[in-house]
Amino acid sequence: MNRLAKFFFCIITIFSIALMSCGKSKQIKTIEIKDGSDDHAWYFFTPNGFEKTKLPQNALLAALKPWTESIRISDGNTGADGWGYFVVNHLGILVFDKHDIPTLIQDYHLFSSSTASNLVFEKGNAYFTLSRNSFFNKESAEESSADDLNRPYLVRISTENSMLYPTITYGDLQVSDGAEVSGTYFDGENWVSSIKKDEEDRTEFHYIQWNSLGNMASFPAQTKDGKISVEESSEDFYRSLNSPKSFADAPERLRSLLSSIPKNFDFTVSCKTAGEDSPRYFVNGSPSGTTNASAVISDRWITAVFADGTTYFAGALEGHPLMNGGKNVALRLPKLPANYMYNSFCISGDYFVVSWEESDFYKTGRSGFLVVDLGRLFYTDNASEEG
Predict the structure, then answer these.
(1) Is the dihedral angle over the CA atoms 73, 331, 323, 21 positive or is it negative?
(2) Do residues 293 and 267 make contact, with C-beta atoms less than 8 angstroms apart?
(3) Edge-to-edge, what's the strand order for the sheet holding 163-169?
(4) HSE of 60 in the Cβ direction (CA atoms, 13 Å)?
(5) Average pLDDT over residues 82-89
(6) In the predicted model, what is the mean pLDDT of residues 287-310?
(7) Degrees, nearest 5: CA angle 58-64-69
(8) Is the CB of residue 78 less than 8 Å from the CB of residue 70?
(9) pLDDT average, residue stretch 4-25
(10) DSSP one-letter string for 200-239
(11) I want to staple 70 with a disulfide (CB 3.0 to 4.6 A). Which of 124, 192, 351, 364 is the partner?
């Protein structure tokens, strides 16, 4: 959603604007993460896992590839269990169990030739989707026709045994003959998917709504009647789910968190609820050329991260009292090099984990994640007051 707009975030930093605004109205506690300090650690992805690095620009070079084909964090969120989950395209699933070093769950068969994305939660279980892009990876897309019937689409993440279990197939969705699911939105009850099929001289789309007819976590990996119901939907309905609404209609907690940003500053925010369904999108000002942000709302806290690293937090970490008396806190993440950006994030226990990546238009190079010890930053005397 609005991926290309992320490349315009360097026009101006949100943080300086927010501080000018709050300087005129109210103070906001500001915490800066300084380069070289031991309250954070950088990691980058390798073809087989991840390694520590001093700075993102010191990571091993990675060839720029289309984002659908590169190793990068494509989605992330905090689960209802308080654990952090990241979908790492063409690599695996990262799970943070309230510690600073994650578990990497891998399955070469699932990740080698498919694009992994769309992290959602249903009845406490975490799921993600698999697709193949016929434009960027024609070879993989052509291979799909032979195994479409049982090719996995929706996959469950099992933290109990660090395994991945396909639950819904392309055959279950009645998608075959070289067609591809180009996107899915889950509202907590209904699943709505866009189906794309490339013909010689045109690309056709149609839309379906599908619903589980049982406990999806126990579904077999093979196509089978009686797993789901499928009916036709419409482009207008699918687009309405994925299109941004006015920021004035955003949840009150999110509007309060970002209240120090001037009304005339344009931004788009993807807002998730921890451990729940697909994100909602909200836009303040013009929807084109805006700065992008990701937000997560949980029972204990709410956090928003902008692409330049400007971060806002309100609430309390698990096992800790309210930070700053419940008032908003601004966090300065380390400044990234030019053409790098922050993206998805999670909070697990005391740890705040943010994805980063090197970008060039629609391509991604080096990528990884930053782990910040928020427990140490928030509940010691390191925090400073600014206004």
Answers:
(1) negative
(2) yes
(3) 115-122, 125-131, 152-158, 163-169
(4) 10
(5) 98
(6) 93
(7) 120
(8) no
(9) 41
(10) SS-EEEEEEEEEESS-GGG--SS--TTSEEEEE--HHHHH
(11) 364
Number of H helices, E strands in the chain: 6, 27
Say if residues 210 and 193 touch (Cβ distance below 8 Å).
Answer: yes
Residue 288 φ/ψ, nearest 5 degrees: -105, 135
Distance in angstroms (rounded) separating the CA atoms of residues 301 and 348: 12
Mean pLDDT (the chain) is 89
Residues 284-293: pLDDT tens digits? 998 776 799 9
- Vertex 93: Cα angle to 91 and 99 (nearest 5): 125
Rg (CA), the chain: 21
Q: What's phi and psi for 324, nearest 5 deg?
A: 55, 35
Check if the beta carbon of residue 29 is closer than 8 Å to that of residue 385: yes
**Residue-level pLDDT at 139:** 56
Q: With contact defined as beta carbons under 8 Å apart, do 347 and 84 qualify? A: yes
3-state secondary structure of 52: strand
**Encoded tokens for 351:** 């740890």
